[in-house]
Design goal:
Elements (H helix, E strand, L loop, with lengths): L1 E7 L7 H19 L5 E6 L11 E7 L2 H8 L2 H14 L6 E6 L5
Antiparallel strand pairs: 1-3, 1-4, 2-3
């Protein structure tokens, strides 16, 4: 299994509450509906505790293989639906994606 880890910063001028609401109520359901190939989708929202953090969310998306990720990244749905939606709530220039192989430890 392959996992994408996304570090996400909200769009400038957007409140943390508005970011969280949009991400959880609009974007995450849109991604899950758009890509049934997703095996697991986890949104980790940061706990600000009175101070700013470098990211507002760290998201994990699990896939069967890298080929699936490549196919999705080249899809019209990703280009025409997901990217424009991301631009509504996140600062893409401050966000990053890392591909990982998850190795659970017992």
């Amino acid at each position: 299994m392959v996992k994408q880890i996304f570090t996400i910063q909200r769009k400038k001028g957007m409140s943390l509450e508005a970011f969280k609401k949009y991400y959880m109520e609009v974007h995450a359901p849109l991604v899950k509906k758009s890509f049934p190939e997703i095996r697991k989708y986890i949104v980790n929202l940061t706990l600000q505790r009175g101070k700013e953090t470098p990211y507002d969310a760290v998201t994990e998306i699990h896939w069967d293989d890298i080929e699936t990720i490549i196919r999705i990244a080249k899809s019209e749905t990703y280009r025409n639906v997901i990217i424009p939606d991301e631009d509504r709530f996140m600062d893409r220039s401050s966000s990053a994606v890392v591909l990982t192989e998850e190795i659970p430890q017992k």
